[in-house]
Design goal:
73 residues, 2 strands
């Protein structure tokens, strides 16, 4: 490394899984995820993101939901 501390961009690996599933479906495939394979899909998407120099980060949806609920009050 050159000593610089550049931050990697981040992206949700589930967004990658979602995009791939929609693309496969649009091309006539019928992709399916089961409770047994869903973790493998996230791991593969995370590995792809890392290979592309993007840090996989899953958002804390529970925190987002709490903020949205508080905003409604």
């Amino acid at each position: 490394m050159n000593g610089s501390s550049q931050e990697l961009p981040t992206y949700d690996p589930w967004g990658v899984v979602n995009a791939v599933m929609f693309k496969l479906a649009a091309d006539g495939f019928k992709p399916r995820l089961s409770s047994d394979t869903i973790g493998e899909a996230k791991e593969a998407a995370s590995a792809l993101l890392m290979a592309l120099g993007v840090l996989p980060v899953v958002p804390d949806y529970a925190a987002e939901d709490a903020v949205a609920e508080a905003a409604k009050r």
